[in-house]
Amino acid sequence: MTTPRPFGRALCAMITPFTATGALDLDGARKLAAHLVAEGCDGLVLNGTTGESPTTTDAEKTALVRVVREEVGDRAFVVAGVGSADTRHTVALAREAEQAGADGLLVVTPYYSRPPQAAVEAHFLRVADATGLPLMLYDIPGRTGTRIEPATLLALAAHPRVVAVKDCAYDLLGSSLAIARTSLAYYSGCEELNLPLYAVGGAGYVSTVAGVAPRQMRAVLDAYDSGDRAGAVRLNQLTLPLVESMMASGLPGTVTAKALLDGLGLPGGPVREPLLPAGRETADGLLATYGELLHAARP
């Protein structure tokens, strides 16, 4: 069975660059998007958690999708995050993203209100019916408070525009069963599960860490696909210290990614409140860990 990959394999959850004064940095977004695609990203996921979607305006979200689409052309997929706690608002964002040139939509489970599964299913179907774009469902119960239950996923998979899942549920058995029983493309949203999920039929990943180490994250999948399973394991192990530093240090991935990007001279800029920037010691430690990965991963 061929694994479906509607948005490629190696996707980056891209940060939203801001200027020093906190305004949207569209020139920086162009530069960063071009860099990430040149470094091996098949797709860019905009306006997601890493993109600080809770603190960007609808107009900023649309402008970001438009300029990234213009910059990358047909060299990469552009997936627009349109999730919100309000179905009507999500539908409006979906339509704006379609008009701005997105290839697909990332739609998170409605949060805070904790809707029952029938309401979760109805929400996703409303969004799927609102545009002609394919959907990637975002299952991240640790943030939303609500799981997309396996039965709900099976029902949603019958819709022709529900094609993928960004999987942050930490349920490898449930994900494996869904992969076996549907044609949904499963993308790991948790870097420590990139290789395990890929090995059981996953499509690839949507990764925050790929925003600073795109070649190194992709190399794991490349090795696996070439038949070098031992090499894939070795390369995956090399990424783990950076994954741990960025994603399991007690700071949001947005904060650690922007600290690294700034240290590397790439567009990042400040985070928006309520997030706070990484301290100098943390930023220096991230740069040191990143440097160790570059050294260790050299052929």
From TrEMBL:
Q: What domain of life does the native source organism fall in?
A: Bacteria
Which residues act catalytically here? Answer: 138, 166
Enumerate the PROSITE patterns for this protein: DHDPS_1, DHDPS_2
A molecular function annotated in GO for this UniProt entry is:
4-hydroxy-tetrahydrodipicolinate synthase activity
Q: Which reaction does it catalyse?
A: L-aspartate 4-semialdehyde + pyruvate = (2S,4S)-4-hydroxy-2,3,4,5-tetrahydrodipicolinate + H2O + H(+)
UniProt entry tagged with the keyword Iron-sulfur:
no
State the Pfam families in the record: DHDPS
E.C. number(s) listed in UniProt: 4.3.3.7
- Give the coiled coil ranges: none
Q: Name one GO cellular component term.
A: cytosol
Q: Where does pyruvate bind?
A: 50, 206
Query: Localized where?
Result: Cytoplasm
User: Site: Part of a proton relay during catalysis. Where?
Assistant: 49, 112
Keyword annotations from UniProtKB, A to Z: Amino-acid biosynthesis, Cytoplasm, Diaminopimelate biosynthesis, Lyase, Lysine biosynthesis, Schiff base
Pathway field? Amino-acid biosynthesis; L-lysine biosynthesis via DAP pathway; (S)-tetrahydrodipicolinate from L-aspartate: step 3/4
Name a single GO biological process.
diaminopimelate biosynthetic process
Give me the segments passing through the membrane.
none
Query: What is the protein's quaternary organization?
Result: Homotetramer; dimer of dimers.
The family classification in the record reads: Belongs to the DapA family.
Q: Which PANTHER family match?
A: 4-HYDROXY-2-OXOGLUTARATE ALDOLASE, MITOCHONDRIAL, DIHYDRODIPICOLINATE SYNTHASE
Query: What is the documented function of this protein?
Result: Catalyzes the condensation of (S)-aspartate-beta-semialdehyde [(S)-ASA] and pyruvate to 4-hydroxy-tetrahydrodipicolinate (HTPA).
Q: Which HAMAP family match?
A: DapA
This protein's name: 4-hydroxy-tetrahydrodipicolinate synthase
- This protein's species is Streptomyces liangshanensis
